[in-house]
UniProtKB/TrEMBL annotation:
Residues 23-104 form the Lipoyl-binding domain. The lineage of its organism: Bacteria, Pseudomonadati, Bacteroidota, Bacteroidia, Bacteroidales. Its cofactor is (R)-lipoate. This is Glycine cleavage system H protein. It comes from Candidatus Cryptobacteroides excrementavium. The modification N6-lipoyllysine is found at residue 64.
Length: 128
């Protein structure tokens, strides 16, 4: 069973969001990193790029597969996690402590359609 962290919001595409005022940190879940296997590369947008809820903003490549990253929120990228350039495996070893991008939200209600930890746990269990 994948670990699910409390206090985050989750999408059905296995990204998480941690709010910090009008900004959001976005990463991938333990379920996602486990399904991908050893992550070898992360494609991230540049600072000042716009991301749109439910649209691709990058990709994660592993030894098994490549998977698109789908933004759970809309806004402007204010930072990207440069540590992932040298150590993409951080997403495997600490998926909830390793964010991919930081976004200034364009819609404060962005997380209202996302799942909390209990709902995401149930969603993952329903996947088998």
């Amino acid at each position: 069973m994948a670990k699910v962290a409390e206090g985050l919001f989750y999408s059905e595409t296995h990204e998480w969001v941690r709010l910090d005022g009008d900004e959001a940190y976005v990463g991938i879940t333990d379920y996602a990193q486990h399904a991908l296997g050893s992550i070898v590369y992360v494609d991230m947008p540049d600072v000042d790029d716009e991301v749109v809820k439910d649209e691709e903003f990058g990709a994660v490549e592993s030894v098994k597969a490549a998977s698109d990253l789908v933004s759970p929120v809309s806004g402007t990228v204010t930072a990207k996690n440069d540590a992932l350039d040298e150590g993409p495996g951080l997403l495997n070893s600490d998926p909830y402590g390793t964010w991919i991008i930081k976004v200034r939200l364009s819609d404060a209600s962005a997380t209202s359609a996302l799942m909390d930890a209990a709902a995401y746990s149930a969603f993952c269990e329903s996947l088998g």
